[in-house]
Amino acid sequence: MLGFEESEVFCRCVWVNGPVIVGAGPSGLAVAAGLKQHGVPFVILERSNCIASLWQNKTYDRLKLHLPKKFCELPGIPFPSDYPEYPSKRQFVEYLEGYAKHFDINPRFNECVESAKFDEDCNLWRVKTVSTDGGVAEYICQQLVVATGENADPVVPEIEGLAEFDGEVIHACDYRNGESYRGKKVLVVGCGNSGMELSLDLCIHNAKPAMVVRSSVHVLPREIFGKSTFETAMLFLRWLPLWLVDKILLALAWIILGNVEKYGLKRSPVGPLELKNTQGKTPVLDIGALQRIKSGEIKIVPGIKKLSPGAAEFINGEKIKIDSVILATGYRSNVPKWLQEADFFTENGFPKSPFPNGWKGKDGLYAAGFTRRGIAGTSADALKISEDIVRIWKNDLKQQKGRRQISTL
Questions:
Q1: Model pLDDT, residue 401
Q2: pLDDT score of 372
Q3: Predicted structure pTM score
Q4: Cα of 313 vs its chain's centroid, Å
Q5: For 15, phi and psi rounded to 5 degrees?
């Protein structure tokens, strides 16, 4: 009984006269900006010590936006005109910091949401947090915006012998550059954009990477005849069905890149755009890794059978010596860890309704940044969410004003 009383004493209770936004990445900032412009109060909670913590703390140095900057802008503010077509990691972070400053968005940092549950008796959301200094708080609000995104937590696969391997093993979120890997044999597990770019970076730093390609992958040129591949696809989709645009993209990729399958990069029978829309699997936009694969500087290997001290064995029976392992195995949503709700989100932490209908649930629940369509999809959802909350907010103000007038009479 004493322990319960102590926990109650030290739990700070906060009433929020507006929504609570969980996550201060691009999604959370975009929603907050839309609310700020209409004077709607809110609280934005962030478990890290900065905005866009994934970009600031868990990405490699050479990272640049994969799409042209005009497709990566948040609502209300464009990128500076002197930024290059594909801004760097640092430039993107500076853009987001300027965005937060412009709209006077001040997240509550170092507050990790432990749970969020809708209280049906009170018709309110109860959001419990724990801060890095051990403080406990409960935020009470009418609306909850889930903006933790698709890439909240790193995925670490189960690999036989991983615990016995005697070299360094890190996830891509802890990789910055290849300086410390010079001359080393590095196994990169994963062949998405991160796996490709890490392998390229390792080559540039005179390491010897081998990249695991376990399943099919679409590799496309970043640009087609001087224009962004993504922009070209969007242009075609104005007049042509998706399946035909996929065929056109693959034909153009064949002309520009050649037959990549003979290098161990097997293409999926499902087109790149359809695969992205249905499964969220992003095609690789090549920025130089393919040439290193063709030259043999990046070795392609199949799925791993097992690891052992200083070596890796693959499903085709091949064995190679390795010094380090980098897991470029992606990220997952962390929503199921803390949101106590079963109607709107799936067990994988994504809205059950696909884009463009996955932004709003019931009881004032919203989701931003789960569209599998990059920052453009995030911005589209953020606008809908902020507009909906603003509408509700204004209606509530009208009703309160009317009640005050009646009370006066």
A1: 63
A2: 85
A3: 0.91
A4: 32
A5: -85, 130
Mean pLDDT, contiguous 10-residue spans, the chain (409 residues): 43 93 97 97 97 95 94 96 96 97 97 96 95 94 96 94 95 96 97 96 97 94 93 94 96 96 93 88 94 97 96 96 97 95 91 90 95 90 97 86 43
**3-state helix, strand and coil shares in percent for the chain, rounded to the nearest 5:** 35, 25, 40
Give the amino acid at 280. G
Q: What is the DSSP letter of 374?
A: H
Annotate 99-160 with DSSP letters as a single string: HHHHTT---BTTEEEEEEEEETTTTEEEEEEEETTS-EEEEEES-EEE---S-SEE-----T
Q: Which two tokens stand for residue 93?
A: 């972070």
What pLDDT, on a 0 to 100 scale, did the predictor assign at position 396? Answer: 85
193 torsion bin: left (phi>0), alpha (psi -120 to 50), beta (else): alpha
The per-residue pLDDT for 399 is 79
The pair of three-digit structure tokens given for residue 288, joined into one six-digit string: 């130089």
Give yes or no for a cis peptide into 356 (omega within 30° of 0).
yes
Residue among 159, 146, 153, 185 at smallest CA distance from 172:
153
Q: Give the chain's radius of gyration (CA, Å).
A: 24
Q: Which pLDDT value is given to residue 11?
A: 83
End-to-end, the C-alpha distance of the chain in Å comes to: 50
Residues 37, 28, 17, CA angle at the centre, nearest 5°? 60
Closest C-alpha to 276, from 192, 212, 214: 192
Report how far residue 408's alpha carbon sits from residue 58's, in angstroms, rounded to the nearest whole number: 57
Q: Sheet harboring 20-22: ordered strands across? A: 43-45, 20-22, 144-146, 365-367
- The whole-angstrom distance between residue 304's C-alpha and the CA centroid of its chain comes to 26
CA distances from 75 to 140, 202, 402 (A): 28, 36, 33
Let me know: does 358 contact 3? Beta carbons within 8 Å: no
Angle of helix 89-102 versus helix 26-36 axis, rounded to 10:
20
Which neighbouring-strand residues pair with 187?
Answer: 210, 325
Q: Can you list the alpha helix ranges (DSSP code H) found in 313-373?
A: 335-338
